[in-house]
Amino acid sequence: MAAALAVAGGMTAATAAVAEEAPQHQGGATATLGGLQTYDQAVVHDNGSSQQVPAGLFEMTVEGGGTLQTYCVDILNPTQNDAKYQETPWSGTSLNANRDAGKIRWILQHSYPQVNDLAALARKAGVRSLTEQTAAAGTQVAIWRYSDGAKVDAIDPKAEKLADYLFHSARDSAEPKASLTLDPPAVSGRAGERLGPVTVRTDADSVTVTPPADSVASGVKAVGKNGKAVKSAHNGSRLYFDVPKDSPDGSAALSLQASTTVPVGRAFASETRSQTQILAGSSESTVSATATANWAEKGAVPALSAEKNCAKSGIDIAADNKGDEPFTFRLMGVEHTVKAGASQTVTIPLQEDQPYDFTIKGPDGFEKRFKGVLDCRTEGAATVNSKAQPVSEPSPASAGGTSGGTSGGGDLAATGSSSNTPLIVGIAVVFVVLGGAAVFFLRRKDDSPLDAEPGGTGNDNQ
Q1: Per-residue CA distances from 174 to 100, 159, 295 (Å)
Q2: pTM score, two decimals?
Q3: What whole-number distance in Å separates Cα of residue 451 and Cα of residue 273?
């Protein structure tokens, strides 16, 4: 065991150089959380206690340009100031198991800020007037009642009346489509062929297609169904990688980018333990996606992509093997084989709030890394059988907002979320597999420093 732990320490040091790699992303908007911008106060009743919390709209800054307004859907889980969020399907969040998720979208579509005529909204709620602050608070309270099943009331009587109106009026609405995604995001094949297709799904009018970085030297091009080079695409476009016949075994990536308003009701999840957000409003914003291709002359030729599957409490690894030999990989001590010419989806089971970080290796130096955190339940649902109490500064406050409207707390580096920070090196659990002469490691980060900003008690479910 001592020798195995020494090897584990060496692996930790070896992976530090790539610890800041971006996690997998199916496409869409990527944004940084700024904190609460428009809010008032509410009271959460839980386990016989009551606690006052701020309730309202967050603001996010989109990478590449744009601004998003969001409400939260996990009242007991703190946010992390400056946390990075990615547009995510409901299937990868707590909304997957929430039969009222569609009602939350209805609330978003029929309240502030989508409805910015506050006088008209006040009449529907049966009150004389609403401010932006009380409208935001009432909307957030109504959402919490559906997202968390929370017993929560707005302190301002007008905001409470709005919350009641929205809660009782809500009807099911369908999940909105992604602003930009690719199907599939990874393809494979042989040199001399057009690899694909990769189908573009978007609500943008036009998408810019950027060819592989070394396309001039390699000759690899992005083409359409007719074989002609493409520089732009639209919803439904089918893209291919045109790989010259004499190309050595290798890989390439296409970058796609567009400007659009992200649909109301899209979920945004963080790769840290920062509460899930749901979109209430969007400016014209930059959205992006990446398609990859791998090719080889012989042997296994894998294409891999990953997506959170909250219905199965795990990560779906989609593997497509266009080679003439089986592709075999191991994850968490289990071997998986994809036959030549076949496709297979493998679900890797994980525990709630479990960080994951694994690399799948293939022939000729092929590597694909996936990392993130499985966050499929609200904090209340995750601790329903425990005696956990609400944090002293629930989700909105920990993002930097306070009842006085000031901001505080550290950024991610200060609170210990950087993968280079010693506080989250974590505990290595070493499995020595006899007979196979292989050692597998499952590292879990100690994310307790992320659970609360200074002044809060945080939530610790480990």
Answers
A1: 11, 26, 39
A2: 0.77
A3: 7
Here the tokens at position 374 are 């499985």
Q: Please give the helix or strand (H or E) that residue 88 lies within, else none.
A: strand 84-88
Distance CA 428, CA 342 (A): 35
Q: pLDDT digits over 219-258, tens only?
A: 999 999 999 999 999 999 999 999 999 999 999 999 999 9
By C-alpha distance, which of 287, 319, 316, 306 is closest to 187? 319
E strands present in 104-249:
151-154, 180-183, 186-189, 194-202, 207-210, 221-223, 232-233, 238-242
Q: Contact at 8 Å (CB) between 201 and 228?
A: no
Bridge partner list, 56: 39
Strand partners for 428: 443
Q: Is the pLDDT of residue 5 over 80?
A: no
Which three-class secondary structure state does DSSP give residue 36? strand
Q: Please, is 404 exposed, middle or buried when counting C-beta atoms within 10 Å of its C-beta (0-12, 13-18, 19+)? A: exposed
Name, in order, each residue with C-beta under 8 angstroms of 139's C-beta and a sequence gap of 6 or more. Answer: 71, 107, 108, 111, 112, 162, 163, 166, 280
CB 200 within 8 A of CB 182: yes
Tokens coding 407? 């901001």
- DSSP per-residue codes, 226-264: TS-B-SEE-TT-EEEEE--TTPPSEEEEEEEEEEEPPPT
**Beta strands 285-295; 186-189: pairing state:** parallel
At what angle are helices 132-147 and 101-109 packed, to 10 degrees? 170
Q: How far apart (Å, rounded) are the C-alpha atoms in residues 318 and 347? A: 9
The confidence band for 24, taking pLDDT boundaries of 50, 70 and 90, is: low
Write the single-letter amino acid at 303: A
**Strand, coil or helix: 72:** strand
DSSP secondary structure string for all residues of 292-315: EEEE-SSS--EEEEEEEEGGGTEE
Match 């009782």 to its residue by tokens. Answer: 168
Give the tokens for residue 173: 């609405």
Rounded to whole angstroms, the Cα distance separating 238 from 210 reads: 15
How far, in Å, are 71, 384, 391 from residue 388 at the CA level?
24, 8, 9
446, 461 in Cβ contact below 8 A? no
Please state, in angstroms and rounded to a whole number, the distance separating the CA atoms of residues 455 and 371: 30
Q: CA-CA distance, 300 to 326, in Å (whole number)?
A: 6
Strand partners for 349: 314
Question: Tokens 């910015």 identify what position?
Answer: 116
For 47, other C-beta atoms within 10 Å of its C-beta total: 9
Cα–Cα distance, 239 to 256 (Å, whole number): 11
Q: How far apart are CA 339 and CA 144, in angstroms?
A: 46
- In the numeric block, which tokens belong to residue 89? 């399907």
Token pair listed for 336: 């998986």
